[in-house]
Protein: CTLH domain-containing protein
Organism: Dioscorea zingiberensis
Amino acid sequence: MDSMPVNCDALDSLVLDFAQSERLLDDSPSSDSYQSRLLIRQIRRFLEDGEVDRAIDLLRFHVPAILDDHRILFRLQKQRFIELLRKGTAKDHDSAMECLRVVLAPCALDAYPEAYEEFKHVLLTLIYDKEDKSSPVANEWSERRRFDLAGSLSSILRAQLHAHDPLLSMTLRYLISIHKVFCIHQDIVSPISDITDRFLFEDRDPPIVPHESSYEAPPFEEVDVQALVHAAELTRQDAIDSLRFAKGDLFQAFQNELCRMKLNVLMLDELVREYCVYRGIVDSITTSLSDCTSQNEPYGTNGSSNCEVSGNTVRKEDARESNADLISSQNNDVEMRSAYDTTETPGDCSTSDINHQVKYCRRLRRSRSHATGQRRRKRWRGRIESFEATPDLDSTNLNVQKLACSVHSSRETPDEEQVSKSNSIFDNVNDMEDHKYEIILEMMELANKGMIAEVVEEVNALDPEFFVQNPVLLFQLKQVEFLKLVNVGNHAMALRVASTHLGPLAAKNDSLLKPLKETLLALLKPNEDVMTKGLSLLATSLQVAMSRRFGIEEPQLMKIMRATLHTHNEWFKLQMCKDRFEEFLKINILKELDAPVPSNGTFKTQADNETNGSSQISSSSSKITDYGSSPTQVASNESAFDENAILKVMEFLALPRSDAIHLLTQYDGNAETVIQQIFA
């Protein structure tokens, strides 16, 4: 499957917003939205654990208006009655009977039409044992009821408190869900399934049912209904209910539906942390083994509750397994790095090379500190959730331990000599890794500022073979240097750069001759925009190439984005329409790329020279043209038909947009004829 470049500046912004919104960084402010999300997560945990009393106390203290809705109150009290019976003690049985008489029975009279029948049905739990799987109330005893109630209430609270998840979380849910649908539709294997299957789960929270009758005629535009149907994979009736709950606000309904999708929050945190370190947003700090051995509590105690995973106990176990996979991969990565730094491999830097790089990096930072300024990086705080409940409740303090520590917590504590030796190796490896990041980020910063001559000089000093293996990247850098000189009127020096670097590179690579000619045209008509537009993309390409050279893995988040943005484009080409939600989720900005050179031909050559598809410039010129355009531009048939005709066929036949358009093509765009022929 192809992938496409990503606007990393836009992705940086989304990632930083997520990290700050979820208070994963030390300087993150605590917003009202964050506190509301924290409250919702705490209520959810209580309900999933069967502690309905504590959930009701939280609601009564923080959101009392929610309990004025007798529909919600009835469902809570019914679950409370079940949980009291489940405990099985005489005291709890008396409390259950009191709940039945004092709260549940009166509430059943006016909660909703079916409530009283449900009340009578739940009385059967008094005579049928919870272990009896064949009883008529086996579903009432099922723990699944806890998770369904927790999910429904979470959705209601999210909408009422305006506490939707950060944009990055919703964007990833949407892109990955489209990616999965596209792969199934096209019968292809996803290259990122090993990540996405552990990240986004198949089950969702129950849909929100509004107060009004589900069969009432919807006062909504059909175009909105169909947009929500296909974006959130809903039935038409569910889309109507969702719009009704959101009072007709399409984007509010869309957010509600996205947040129903369950994801592994801890895994998302790790993806974000990895990306932040790679991009220089946060410091590269790794927990030492001594810190890990001081932790005695198993990670699973609190860790699983931090995943938005509900449905059953098995799903929680799946989340723990996902965390274990992440931990294992981290430790394997440490071992690989250790091996890399102590043995020389073809095409990689040896330990002596690293020492040279460390010394050079120190000199480089000293010499450049005044010219470029020191990048102020944030410190990673991690997900540390503490929420104070009511004064008469114990406050719940969930401290999520660092993933690297959990592996060692269940092992025997090594002796002091082993710990000291391990720490020394671990710290040396991390020190080398940190210096690698510093070198790469320094080069990226210089490239972003257009200091191309300095970049080339210093990269050559670091690794004389680097540009030998990346000639197209050198060509691109020298193009920018040439254009910069032309724009300041230094034509003589510009021609020297062209004859010394651009000409010889093009002579060795025929595909560079055309961009070379177009670059030379700048001598006649300088254009500063051409030089500056693509600096960020070029800097990112430099970062990717240097990271690969230094043995640093590309962040998984970047891999996910490249693959899912590509399938997003392809999916909406098939649908022959523009995605109504891509601007809302900033997907359009993630796709906006400005080429660093006048010609797209260079990108083709760059892609051909990539060995594992991890460059930000990885597509042919024709594909870049497609990516820069709206999917509607390739939907040549769409303009031939009236939008109402398309929607009518989609609605009556329950078809995707593309299928409806193909049918209209066969019958001259007449929706009535299409419907008659299908039902004839």
